[in-house]
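User: C-alpha cells for this one?
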Amino acid sequence: QMADPFLYNTGDRSHYGCLGHEVQIEYLKAYVCRPSFFTDKAVIVVHDVFGWQFPDIRYIVDLIAGHGYLAICPDFFKGTEPWKSTDHWADFADWMKDHDPMKVDKEADVVLKYLKEQCGAKKIGIVGFSWGGMAVHHLMLKNPQLTAGVSLYGIIRDSEERYNLLNPTFFIFGEKDHTISLDQVFLLEEKLKQYCKVSYKIKVYPGQVHGFAQLKPEDMKPDDKPYIDEARKDMIDWIKMFV
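Assistant:
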C-alpha cells in the first residue's frame, strides 16, 4: 500500500463544534459563518477533497468570520461523495474525473449571486485548500468578480494560460509537499513575473507538508504551529489588503 501522496493524515480528529449554520442556495448546500456585525465583505472558502462538511474546513470558515468577513463554504461537490480517508488511492484518478477543480464556474456564480443579492456583499474574496487551491487558481483567471484570491497548495497545472490572473492572488506552498515540487513553484513564479499584470505573491513555508494550514490547533504538532499560524496570518493579511 503506497502512502497517499496527496492527502494529509486525517487520523484521529478532535471534535469541532461549529459556530455557523448550513443554508441552501439554489441547488447547493453551504456552510456560512457571519461576524457579530453587518459587513459587506465576504470570503468564499473552497474545501479540499474531504468536502464542505470536513471539520478542518469549517474551522477555517469560522476563523475568517472572526476577522470580520461573512465566510461561506459551498458544497462544490454538489451533493456527491467527497473523498474519504478510507478510500483507496488507486481510485483517486477516477474520483477526480467526476470532481474537476477546473469545473467550478457555475457554482461560483451561484454563490456570488447569493452573496451580492441576499447578503449585501460588495467585495468578495476567495481562499481554497488543495483541491480548492486549484479551483481558486482557475477562478482567479476567469472571474473578475473575485477581488482577491489565496490558493493554498493547489497542484499547479502547467500551461501558458495559467498566469494571466485577473486580480491579486497569493500562492501558499509547503516546502515538503510531495505532490508539488519546488521546481513547479519556481516555474510558476517565473511565469507570473513574465505574464501577470496584477499583484501576486508566492510563499513557501519551511518543513511543511501538503494540507498543513487547515489543521485545528489541537491537531497541530508543536514544531509546525509557528508556520501554520504564519500561513493563516498571511492569508488573512492578503484578504484584508484587497477585500
